Amino acid sequence: MKIAMVGSGYVGLVSGACFADFGHDVVCIDKDAAKIERLKEGVMPIYEPGLDALVESNVKAGRLSFTKSLAEGIEGARAIFIAVGTPSRRGDGHADLTFVHEVAREVGESLANDAVIVTKSTVPVGTGDEVERIIRDTGTSHRFAVVSNPEFLREGAAIGDFKRPDRIVIGAEDDFGREIMREVYRPLFLNESPILFTERRTSELIKYAANAFLATKITFINEMADLCEKVGANVQDVARGIGMDNRIGSKFLHAGPGYGGSCFPKDTLALLKTAEDYDSPTRIVEAVVKTNDSRKRAMGRKVLEALGGAEKARGKKAALLGLTFKPNTDDMRDSPSIAIAQTLADAGVSIAAYDPEGMEQARPLMPEVVMCEDPYEAIERADVVAIVTEWDAFRALDLARVKQLARAPVLVDLRNIYNPEDVRAAGFTYSSVGRM
Fold first, then answer.
1. Is 263 in the active site?
2. Matching CATH number, 208-289, of 1.10.260.40, 1.10.1040.10, 3.90.1570.10, 1.20.120.450
C-alpha cells in the first residue's frame, strides 16, 4: 500500500520509516525544502537512535522517498497521515491546529483517489470532525474517511515502540476507514499487537488522557521524594514498594527534576483547555501542571543550597551534566535544565555544561551557559557538579578525576544514578532526590 506522511518531523519521520520497513511504499512530505534536501542526503533533522540507518536502508530499497510537493506525495496513496506540529497556542495553552487545518485543506484540494486521512498529530477532541468538514468543503469528488490514530512513541526508544507497541488505537467512524487501517497495520496485527478500535473522539481523548496520567505519576513520586527528604525515607524504595503493586506499576515512578519534552507539557495544557471549554474541570491535571512548573525552579534552588545558599553562590561556578529533557534525544523543549540554569544565573552563578546530543539545540535557549566538549571540561574549577539528565555517559564518571578537576568535591545528583555511600566514600559532599 502507498502511504503518504505529511510532516517529516519526529513523529512523521519515525512513523514513515517504520511503515516502509514493514513493506509499505511511503512518501514523507514536508514544506521545508531544506529539510527535504537534507533527508535525501541522509541527514536526519532529529537525533533518534537507529533512525538514520532505518531511513537509509529503506531509501535504498525504494520503499521510502521524500518530497516537498503535497499533491505529488499523496497521489495514489490509500492512507494519508497528518503528522504536523500542534504546539501550545500562545496565551491560552490550547493546541495550535493551524498546520493541521492547512494540510486538511490542501489534501482536499489535491485528492486524486479514494483515501483515508489519518490524524497522527496529537489533537484535541473534535479535531477529526473539523478536518472532515474542511476536506468536504473543498468539494472533492473522491471517497474519503477521517481517522484518528494517536502516536505513543517515547523519544529515544521510538523505533522499538512503533514496531512493538503496547497498543494501537484507531478511531474510525465507518467501515472504509477501519478496513484501510487494518491493512496499514496488518504487519503488526500478524504479530498480535493489540489494536483498539474506537469512535474518533474517544481515540483523540485517549492520547491526552494517557499523557496526563503519566505526568501525574511523575509528579506524584516527585512530591513523595520531597516528603522522603523531610522524614528520612528513601524514595527509590518507596517507588519499588508501590510499583510492585500491579494496579500501580513501576514505570514513571522515578523521582527527578520534573517532566519536559514535546508531549507532556503541551498535552496537559491542551487537556486543561479542552476541559475548560466543556465546563468539566480536571483539578488533578491542573495541580500536576502547577506542581511540575514549580519543581524545575526548586531543583535549581537545590543546586544553590549545595553552594551554601543563594546569598553565598554569587561568583561561584556550576557544572551541569545533561541538558535535554531525557537521554537519547536532542530535544530541549521544556527541559528542566532551562529553569535550573536560569535559577543559577539569576543568583550570579557562572555555568558550564555538557550534553552528548543537545548542545546545539540548547545554545539559543541558554546564552548564559558555556558549552563544553566533554563532561570533564565542564567540571574543571566547578564549585558544584549537577547531574541533570541521566545519560549513560554520566553513570560511571571517574570520581577521582572529577575531584581533582573541581574546585570543590560537591555532587548534586538530580537523577539518583549514583550510590550515595560510594560517592561519599570518594570524598564528595553528595545530595540526591528523595534520599538521605
1. yes
2. 1.10.1040.10
